[in-house]
Write a structure and sequence with these properties.
With 219 residues, this protein is α+β, with helices and mostly antiparallel strands. Helix content is 32%, strand content 29%. It comes from Plesiocystis pacifica SIR-1.
C-alpha cells in the first residue's frame, strides 16, 4: 500500500496549468505549493529588451535558459558580464545587482526559481499598477532598482524595451503615481523619452503638464 499522499494533479504541471499574471511572467508553482521554500515561474525577454537592474535583499534566484541567448551583468558597472544560452543555468545571489538583455532577433524563454515568496508577491502586485508594484517592492520586499544603470546599458547596446513590466503608455498616463515620478525622477523621465521618442514626449508633456528640463537639455 502506497504511503504517498499526493495525486498526479498535485505533482504534474502542464503548460496549460501555468498561471497568467499581469507581468511578463507565468507562475508554474507558488511557494505555498512548495512548503514556502521557493516559487517556479516562466519568463521571457523579447528581442531588444532588458530586464532592468535590481537586487533582492531576501531572495536567492536561479535561472534556466530554455532557448535563445541572454547577456548578463552581475555586480553593477565594472562587475561580471557573461552570456548564457539554451541549457545554461545562472545563479543570482541575494543582494547582488543583476540585469540581463536580449541582443538576438528571437524571444528568449527561461525558468526562474526564487526562494521565499517575495518575488511572487512582487509579480502579483503588477495588477495594482506598475508604480505601485515598484514602490511596494522597495518599501516592503527589500528590492532596489537601478534605473541609472539600466539606462546606461540600454544606450550602450541600443536596447528598445523593458522586459517584465508589460506596461503600455495608456496605462501609465492614467496612473497618478507615474505622473509624480515623471515630475520628480529625471532618470525615469529620460528613460521614458528614450524609449518612446519625441511623439511620446509630446504626449506626456501635454497630459501631465510642463515638465522640468533634463540636465543639459531643452524641453
Amino acid at each position: 500500500m502506497s504511503s504517498i499522499d499526493y495525486s498526479v494533479q498535485d505533482l504534474l504541471i502542464r503548460p496549460a496549468d501555468h498561471e497568467e499574471t499581469s507581468a511578463d511572467m507565468k507562475i508554474i508553482a507558488r511557494t505555498a505549493r512548495l512548503s514556502g521554500h521557493f516559487s517556479v515561474m516562466l519568463g521571457e525577454v523579447r528581442p531588444g529588451e532588458i530586464l532592468g537592474f535590481h537586487s533582492h535583499q531576501n531572495e536567492d534566484q536561479h535561472m534556466y535558459i530554455i532557448d535563445g541567448e541572454l547577456h548578463f551583468e552581475v555586480g553593477g558597472a565594472g562587475g561580471l558580464r557573461f552570456t548564457a544560452g539554451a541549457g545554461d543555468n545562472v545563479l543570482k545571489p541575494r543582494s547582488s545587482s543583476h540585469g540581463f538583455w536580449n541582443l538576438t532577433d528571437k524571444t528568449v524563454h527561461y525558468i526562474e526559481t526564487s526562494t521565499q515568496d517575495g518575488f511572487e508577491t512582487f509579480v502579483d502586485s503588477r495588477s495594482d499598477g506598475l508604480m505601485a508594484m515598484l514602490g511596494g517592492a522597495t518599501e516592503e520586499l527589500g528590492m532596489s532598482f537601478e534605473t541609472d544603470r539600466t539606462l546606461e546599458v540600454m544606450k550602450e547596446f541600443g536596447l528598445t524595451g523593458i522586459a517584465g513590466a508589460n506596461a503600455n503608455p495608456e496605462e501609465l498616463i492614467r496612473d497618478p503615481q507615474f505622473h509624480e515620478a515623471m515630475r520628480t525622477n529625471e532618470t525615469l523621465r529620460e528613460m521614458v523619452f528614450y524609449l518612446g521618442g519625441a511623439a511620446l514626449k509630446d504626449k506626456f508633456q501635454g497630459l501631465i503638464g510642463k515638465l522640468p528640463p533634463l540636465p543639459g537639455r531643452g524641453r
